[in-house]
């Protein structure tokens, strides 16, 4: 009898982990506390849930809480029996394109970095509710980053500017236009002297034409672009190498060796969506060859997390590393002979430099060097030279004409404007760039300068620091409320069309600039249409048809530009390269990076992004000073404390966060934080206070001392741990090839059970597969799931108590020592187990199983015992501890998905495999008398994924992608030994390290 029990008994999570089948795989861990198994971590790990998660609301005893909850429920039931008091009216004449209960999809675009990314937006009866990528757009390819998913929150944000104001008093757009038209006549008489336009960088053809008209009308005016995260170094580096600014495009799917010099190209840059897709395609171990990625950087980036070799170093040392690689390649490649002497060696990095150079030389035309925008122009010029000599330029590296306005757009522009205004040389300034006052560098008093300009105009989405100092404040229209156009980095033009009329009288940038251009057209729609009429031969039936087609598809045909033929000026590159002294950096360095979630602060007020954990630190609702474990120990910095950072006499105090894999003697701060949040509290630390014009990204001479306050970082990285189990797996290509087809055999197949498995009927057997080789950990799936399924925002305090509500989380694991050079992201959602532990402990059958394999939640049955969550080994169920919806305004409710039930307090919820999409597809298939097109049916997380890491479909279709991945040699089931038979399969990550370098 005992042997029978031993054979069929299910292990429980309180048991000690079983010995791993592959003891040679490095141990994975989520935090330094887990790695060292500190007493605090041991106490937290012994609990089923994070401390504080299960506690009742503060200030109430349990008995009183239950009494109030029962009273509220009774009153809610009575209220539900009455008709609503508000008067409603049906359609008198129903719009031809609107069917109640049936969503429409419209193509549009947005330009997050000046360049277009195509979008398809779902609209319910005039209400945009979901954003997707346009599959026909050459950059988005059907995917988006988290920021595009979160556009809806900004659209329905009740804190937006709502009307035109003049010196604090209500006004109107007509009054603004009349005032500026009259003012423009006076400026025209003096050639526009005293007129400044400070614009956001943009590749819009219509705006470029409008700006050219303004320049012609006002030849003495200053028309400048400004962005706090400007890519000036990229364009200046191209000028050094080619004599002109160009955009560089890389075919990562064809590259065999990539050296990234501080370039987070998987999530940053105008072509990052396409480059991420192509990079994922190069990571296919089944074909026997894989690309190899080297990343040299200081802070852990998303691209660094996906590197085969990550070389951590101070930010100022990246240039030195690039020069050392150049010196090695000079002895291996023709055309670099002039660099064989005079390049200072780097003895401490000699092994890595030699291995990287040899790998690049072997790959030749299939090797590429990419550089991030924070590095100085000469590093970009050096990369262009190396790509030309490797032979990759013109093959897998192509160049495009820059679509944004030429000229600098960084901190120098804001300083020039401030100096001119304070000197009385500015009469009118129109600011459409995002809040330049808040991002002004040290010593630039742009706010005071704008306050003295008689006719200062701010086009602002919220009442930010810039708007508060300008005479005119114009409410900015959201991109989903706007007419416009935008050019992608390859030249393809998309039309921007509104999904909804402006909610708060918002104006487009074209509306703001039109009075100064002296054009007849008065609206953005008229301006855009007139521009393309002139471009396409004038008005007529043919143009009307082409216009409608472009709006429907999302792109204007025949607008992509051919690749440029450019030649590197090796002499010019040599001149700037030899100007680098190569002196080693001494002391501590400050490393400023764009905020991954808030960028330069423009997404600061977006709660979806605030609550999304950072891909590496897992921080939510704030930033922190990132340091390496060695630096924290040397400087005696407490992980739960603060640190004072002093640079050139300016000081800030920030929470400390010890990040494995961070460069030593470097402190990293994200920009864009330190502003007032939704609840009027300041979130994070304003790193712009330490930013200087001559050192916008990194600087030496940083002084660090422990602070006196509590850090207060909110992070979800320590909520659960693997406890030694094989959950997130990665191996080398060599190991995979040696062990195939027996690879991970112990983590797949049937587990002995007392009962025969249930035979699921055809035609549909829903399942999911997640390829860890493709997942880059960007977090787009997290926000997409939140948007699709009406997942509430709980706020900073509740996240700190472990009550986050995300149905899908992306866990992050490190491997090796505290100086870990390798990290692994793993999306984790409900596994839809065929023998789900949650189902047989629910006392009211609120969680049940469908004939098609879905683990379903019946919200109306749930009484909130939380037994299911306790028994879920994957910890993917979420409980509504509080009522989060009553504080949502009527405007915000417009963004809810009407296909998904809004849950209330006391109810458990989780991933449903987007069952609402399945049912809608079933209805459409039944109407068409056809089976469900499972190839077109996607869950929200699968649809948004830039790298196609997540796929969804039916296992009964043997040739589907999800079925193929379930048969892949790399597939395995998480916690397979428990016998839960999850419908979600994972494919282990396979890396391709250089044998000449240490693994990791």
Automatic annotation (TrEMBL):
Gene3D superfamilies membership: 3.30.70.20, 3.40.50.740, ADC-like domains, Dimethylsulfoxide Reductase, domain 2, Formate dehydrogenase/DMSO reductase
Residues crossing the lipid bilayer are none
For the region Disordered, give the residue spans. 33-58
Q: Boundaries of each 4Fe-4S ferredoxin-type domain copy?
A: 766-796, 821-852
**Which InterPro entries does the record match to this protein?**
4Fe4S_Fe-S-bd, Asp_de-COase-like_dom_sf, TAT_var_transloc_signal_dom
Q: Report which superkingdom the organism of origin falls in.
A: Bacteria
Region forming the signal peptide: none
Basic and acidic residues composition-biased segments: 33-46
| Stated name of the protein | Molybdopterin oxidoreductase, iron-sulfur binding subunit
Taxon lineage = Bacteria, Pseudomonadati, Myxococcota, Myxococcia, Myxococcales
